[in-house]
Amino acid sequence: METILSILVGVFFSVSVYLMTSRYLIRIILGIAILGNAVNLTIFTSGRLMREVPPIIPLDAMVPAGPTANPLPQALILTAIVISFSFLAFLLVLVYRAYQELGTDDAVEMRVAEPADEDLPPVSF
Questions:
Q1: Which residue, of 3, 74, 112, 121, is most buried by count of CB atoms within 10 Å of its CB?
Q2: pTM over the 0.70 mark
Q3: By the 8 A CB rule, do 28 and 20 touch?
């Protein structure tokens, strides 16, 4: 099972890098979303996939009776999902606003839309 998920993680990383090298902002955002899912799946796979009981200690015991599942990868993934969703929503709003202002989602055309008579920003301090 871990082999299949490792191959899937590799496919996700490949697709995300391919999409992030595009010049269209929607493809870049999709690449970022897929990259986040690839990272989450990597954390989930590295947390060992096994069917164990949840880490609940009975009332009359001090430690769990047998091997239990590690809740840390699931907690990390849940936190990462919330953060990546808010980041994705912010990026979508930012791209939509840029599209409203410039009329394109092409990064090369957006660069051409900059005024030509302004000074360049400082390159170093």
A1: 74
A2: yes
A3: yes
- Summarize pLDDT for 20-62 with one digit per residue, the tens: 999 999 999 999 999 999 999 998 888 776 666 667 777 888 8
Query: Percent of the chain, pLDDT > 90?
Result: 46
Count other C-beta atoms under 10 Å from residue 43's C-beta: 15
For residue 113, pLDDT over 70 is answered with no
What is the distance between the alpha carbons of residues 32 and 37, in angstroms, rounded to a whole number?
9
The pLDDT value given to residue 67: 75
What six digits make up the tokens of 43? Answer: 């954390």
Exposure of 3 by Cβ count < 10 A (0-12 exposed, 13-18 middle, 19+ buried)? exposed
3-class secondary structure per residue, 26-85: HHHHHHHHHHHHHHHHHHHHHCCCCCCECCCCCCCCCCCCCCECCCHHHHHHHHHHHHHH
Contacts of 50 (CB under 8 A, 6+ apart): 69
- Separation CA 19–CA 89 (nearest Å): 18
